[in-house]
Design goal:
Elements (H helix, E strand, L loop, with lengths): L1 E4 L8 H6 L4 H12 L3 E3 L13 H13 L8 E4 L5 H6 L5 E6 L4 H14 L8 H13 L2 E4 L2 H7 L8 E3 L20 E5 L8 H8 L6 E5 L12 E5 L6 H5 L4 E4 L8 H8 L3 E4 L14 E2 L5 H13 L3 H12 L4 H16 L2
Parallel strand pairs: 1-2, 1-3, 3-4, 4-5, 5-6, 7-8, 7-10, 8-9, 10-11, 11-12
């Protein structure tokens, strides 16, 4: 049996691998296919042929150069929607075509983010061409593998719900674990490369009602005029250094406006941090028991939950339950869920 795994250009980027934990999922998919008995073919990426002038040009140049390399005799194809349409068109109809989705459907992203980027004077790079490519690829494929229930629900308005399965993301509970000694003070951690999408401004507004705290920010654009005595802007932190960052904090708050799944929330929970986050990224814990779910842009609610966590001696119990909940979702479980989807759809 032979499978094509075409993960997109991020897989080949050393810079992305240095900072992004979610790249691990690509390795799991490849390993999972091999464990099922597939010989896995992956396109070779020639950076000189990738046009980086826009998102759409990068998508199409990767897809075209990869399509030229694909073997003719193959059983299945696996790739992301945006980078796979030409490759899927180049394959025989009988080849089973799988797509994996790590983000919510475009209509939801538009609803949550278009006005938000406009508010801050930033370009919202989800062009009509990009939308068409994503939608067409989803309609063409045989099956979609979503990373969370929320992602499945948003895509179920684009394609049939029966066409979508879930392979929930996990966490390395040995690498991400609580500290031996609880850190001093009250430290709130924000993690995110895109501060607009991840809702950093709403966390900053919420913290204005608190005293005696520190805000640690990993990733994203630096805050202007931040008080260096209480706001620690760490910049982009290499992924292998993130466990130490988590273990120096008490709460992880990411009031994101749109997220497929916030891996940082799971990793923070595994390190004993209590999560405060938006509805779609709260699916990994029980609200009020191992974390707090807050509404979008809900500054007052965020402030209320952070105050409670700062002063309530029950926080320690929530921290323990957050860890217990997080370690149930392991990467091994993710891989087995993925393999079961392939088995079922390929009738192995």
């Amino acid at each position: 049996m032979k499978a094509i795994f075409s993960p997109g250009p991020s897989y080949y980027s050393e810079e992305t691998r240095k900072y992004a934990g979610w790249v691990k999922i690509f390795d799991l998919y490849k390993t999972g296919l091999e464990e099922l008995g597939y010989e896995v073919f992956m396109p070779e990426l020639d950076q000189g042929l990738i046009d980086q002038s826009s998102t759409v040009s990068k998508i199409l140049s990767y897809d075209l150069t990869s399509a030229c390399q694909l073997p003719s005799e193959v059983d299945l194809f696996l790739g992301p929607p945006g980078y796979s349409i030409v490759q899927m068109l180049s394959l025989p109809k009988e080849v089973k075509k799988f797509l994996f989705v790590f983000n919510n459907a475009d209509w939801w992203r538009d609803k949550q983010l278009a006005e938000e980027y406009k508010r801050f004077g930033q370009p919202y790079d989800l062009s009509p061409t990009w939308r068409w490519i994503n939608r067409t690829a989803l309609e063409m494929c045989d099956h979609v593998i979503a990373c969370s229930p929320w992602v499945k629900r948003t895509h179920a308005k684009v394609i049939s719900e029966d066409k979508i399965s879930i392979a929930f993301w996990g966490v390395d509970s040995e690498k991400f674990h609580p500290p031996d000694v609880e850190p001093p003070g009250f430290r709130v951690l924000f993690v995110g490369g895109d501060p607009i999408r991840k809702g950093l401004i709403y966390l900053v507004e919420a913290l204005r009602g608190l005293k005696d705290y520190e805000l640690w920010i990993a990733g994203g654009t630096p805050l202007a005029d931040a008080n260096p005595d209480i706001v620690y802007q760490l910049g982009m932190v290499p992924y292998d250094q993130m466990p130490d960052i988590y273990r120096q904090c008490h709460v992880i708050c990411i009031p994101t406006l749109e997220d497929g799944i916030a891996l940082a929330i799971q990793e923070g929970m595994a390190c004993g941090l209590v999560p405060v986050t938006s509805p779609e990224t709260s699916e990994v814990f029980v609200d009020g028991d191992s974390g707090f779910r807050v509404g979008y842009r809900a500054v007052e609610t965020i402030r209320e939950k952070l105050k409670w966590l700062q002063h309530n001696n029950l926080r320690r119990g929530m921290s323990i339950r957050a860890r217990e909940r997080a370690v149930k979702d392991t990467w091994e479980v993710t891989k087995e869920q993925f393999k079961e989807i392939i088995r079922k759809e390929m009738k192995l």
